[in-house]
Amino acid sequence: MSGRWTSPGTFFSRAQRRLGAALVVIGISRVVAAAIKDRPGGHTVLELVFSAVIPVVILIYMLKFSKSYPERVSHTQSQSQPAT
What we know:
81% helix, mainly alpha, single chain
């Protein structure tokens, strides 16, 4: 974290923004999938990618990121505390 002190609250805020952005991307991919489906001669492969594959990949990323959150916070705290 570039050697500067950050509190767990600061990291939590950044984590929430990142996870929120991931949810927005899922929403956008669903809108694109609906637009492809409504289009005459829409591609089912593209619809499948935008409606299922992208959201699943993002959800897996979100779960892995959320799982690593406690380790990241404790690692940040241990770096910021001076050795005695």
